[in-house]
Write a structure and sequence with these properties.
Elements: E1 12-21, H1 32-45, E2 47-57, H2 68-81, E3 85-88, H3 94-104, E4 107-110, H4 111-122, H5 126-140, H6 172-208, E5 212-217, H7 223-231, E6 248-255, E7 258-264, H8 274-279, H9 281-284, H10 286-289, E8 292-298, H11 304-317, E9 325-330, E10 351-353, H12 362-373, E11 378-384, H13 390-398, E12 400-406, E13 410-416, H14 418-424
Parallel strand pairs: 1-2, 1-3, 3-4, 5-7, 5-8, 8-9, 9-10
Antiparallel strand pairs: 6-7, 11-13, 12-13
Helix pairs in contact: 1-4, 4-5, 5-6
Length: 441
């Protein structure tokens, strides 16, 4: 779907190119760090970086982005090394991709196209594939012009059109644009249905008052490893970018009276394509409805403050900035600053230091989660008369029923939220003590 798919051959050999310009926004510029990240992205996609070229200019060149002289230099370097691909760290316009492909005589793609290629390889669920396909079509639509330059208009202008096809006609480009717009509309409708189903599931969770925790963070920060450590599950967790694309949700029992749903989400990254964020809103919108966010930060990475800033910004764009957030400083066992002193890491309320791999600090995180999310739930035993059987139905719907025995009465052991407890309080055995307000003395 993307202009260059890295899986077309066994391995693509690429030259990486980045530009730092005074009039570009700080987050759009390339640096040694972003180029290292681009190299990691290329390796994740199945490619190999042969060389890195970082150009400094006052302003990007409108035609070739990096300037004619640098294009000639990259072309010579790529051909000498036997590269078959040039990947730009910055976002290129459709016209620039077209010009650079012609000038370099090689496939050219930008960071957005590379990320889309990785997502296309990694998406596993039908929802994930829908989201990737939508993002790819949105990326492709403005870039169609250069893809169909070899086709001629189906009219008599060139004198080559067969009888019966002469007239205004329509270009293959126009046909494909209309086809892609139809595909985009259909995919948007399908994703709207996904959102509708999610909304129903969310309403059911809210009715049951099950707290929802969303794990967020920069790609490769250790989110899946933390989910595995907390829940004992075996979600694949590898040391590579975008290893998790499809949301994984597990149950986590924090205590006898508090069970939560905890979800692992797709990792964030610098320069994440806008249309990709849009396409993944069906997954990421869960952040808006979560009761708590766990922002996992890889403090073993020297760039962790900048990475945390990227995540915070994207959370704001998704409308979840008001959701309570715990910052989980992961890989603290590997943290090394100028003095090698872990105590220099941020600390305070809402911050926990852990190593998801070794388990260090995880008990502190669980204790904090329990404190924040155990909203007064209680485990009680109820003696329900048989003529009040509807109460048992209520408990099955809105509480956590642990056991039921039928004797002189229906004896039920259940974990109830304050709301449910207020409805069934009269059946508690033994009776619960009366709760007095502070002003009642």
């Amino acid at each position: 779907m993307t202009e260059t798919t890295l899986q077309e051959s066994n391995i693509n050999r690429a030259v990486l190119v980045g530009l730092s310009a005074h009039n570009l926004r700080r987050e759009d510029n390339s640096s040694d760090t972003t180029m290292e990240e681009l190299q990691a992205l290329l390796e994740t996609a199945g490619g190999e970086a042969l060389a890195v070229v970082l150009q400094n200019r006052d302003t990007p060149d409108s035609r070739t982005f990096i300037g004619e002289g640098k294009v000639a230099e990259v072309k010579e370097l790529a051909h000498n090394l036997g590269a078959d691909l040039v990947v730009f760290d910055n976002e290129l316009s459709p016209a620039q991709v077209r010009v650079l492909t012609e000038e370099l005589e090689l496939h050219v793609m930008d960071r957005a196209a590379l990320i889309l290629d990785i997502f296309a390889q990694r998406a596993r669920t039908s929802e994930g594939r829908l989201q990737v396909e939508l993002a790819q079509y949105r990326y492709m639509l403005p870039r169609l012009t250069g893809m169909w330059t070899h086709l001629v208009r189906q009219n008599a202008a060139g004198g080559k059109s067969p009888i019966g096809t002469r007239g205004p006609g329509e270009t293959q480009l126009e046909t494909d644009r209309r086809h892609i717009r139809r595909k985009i509309q259909k995919l948007e409708e399908n994703l709207a249905e996904v959102r509708r189903v999610r909304a129903v599931q969310r309403d059911r969770r809210e009715k049951n008052e099950v707290p929802v925790v969303a794990i967020i963070g920069y790609t490769n920060a250790g989110k899946s490893t933390l989910l595995n450590r907390l829940t004992g599950s075996e979600v694949p967790a590898n040391d590579r970018l975008f290893d998790t694309l499809d949301t994984t949700t597990r149950m986590l029992e924090l205590s006898d009276t508090c069970t939560v749903l905890i979800s692992d989400t797709v990792g964030f990254i610098r320069k994440l394509p806008t249309h990709l964020v849009e396409a993944f809103k069906a997954t990421l919108e869960e952040l808006q409805y979560a009761d708590l966010l766990l922002h996992v930060i890889d403090v073993s990475n020297p760039e962790w403050p900048a990475q945390a800033e990227v995540v915070d910004k994207l959370v704001g764009e998704l409308g979840a900035q008001e959701t309570p957030c715990v910052r989980v400083l992961n890989k603290c066992d590997r943290f090394v600053d100028g003095h090698g002193a872990p105590e220099l890491l941020p600390h305070g309320e809402g911050i926990v230091r852990v190593s998801a791999k070794t388990g260090e600090g995880v008990s502190d995180l669980l204790e904090l989660l329990c404190k924040l999310l155990d909203a007064g739930t209680k485990q009680v035993t109820l003696a329900i008369p048989y003529d009040q059987g509807g109460v048992l139905d209520l408990l099955y719907r809105e509480a956590k029923v642990e056991s039921v025995e039928y004797a002189d009465t229906i004896r039920v052991s259940a974990v109830c939220t304050p709301k449910v407890l207020g409805q069934v309080r009269r059946f508690c055995d033994p009776p619960l003590p009366e709760i007095k307000e502070p002003w009642e003395g």
